[in-house]
Design brief:
mainly alpha, elongated, 159 residues
């Protein structure tokens, strides 16, 4: 019993540490000046250049797609981490974890875009907040579906 509590405590700390580290990673990306951020996106764009050319997507649009996909991916991971921390770390119910996780991700996105207001050459876009929130909601839903499936399978095995 004590070993189980110790294990749960370790899992809780690791999950919340993951949330903290990932949030700091997101915010550190927003602190980068515009030129550095654009250069980083262009490096990623070169990896997908052949795909965009095959699909007849102009380079400028490809650059925008890469930047928006990065936003969505960062917050997809954050949604997974927050929901896992709430469900497995704190033992909250799935429904309240979904709402709380999504809300915390939205607040993180608002802080993220606010940081960009003070970063050299950067700006803040409401559309980026929506893209961030969309990515986080997908992550929240993924973890929630896994929890529901896991609990359903567990119930069938225990019956």
């Amino acid at each position: 019993m004590k070993a189980e509590r110790t294990h749960r405590r370790k899992v809780r700390y690791l999950l919340f540490l993951g949330v903290l580290v990932w949030s700091l990673f997101i915010w550190s990306n927003s602190c980068r000046p515009a030129a550095e951020s654009a250069n980083q996106s262009l490096q990623v764009l070169t990896c997908f250049e052949a795909i965009f050319q095959a699909l007849h997507i102009p380079a400028d649009l490809g650059h925008v797609l890469i930047r928006k996909a990065a936003h969505m991916t960062e917050f997809f991971v954050l949604g997974i981490l927050w929901t896992a921390a709430l469900v497995w770390g704190l033992g909250k119910r799935i429904g309240s974890s979904m709402f709380t996780g999504a809300s915390l991700c939205l607040m993180t996105a608002l802080v993220d875009e606010s940081i960009q207001l003070i970063s050299p050459g950067r700006g803040s876009l409401v559309t980026d907040v929506w893209i961030d929130f969309g990515g986080s909601c997908i992550g929240v839903l993924l973890v929630s579906m896994i929890c529901v499936l896991y609990r359903s399978v567990r119930r069938r095995i225990n019956c």
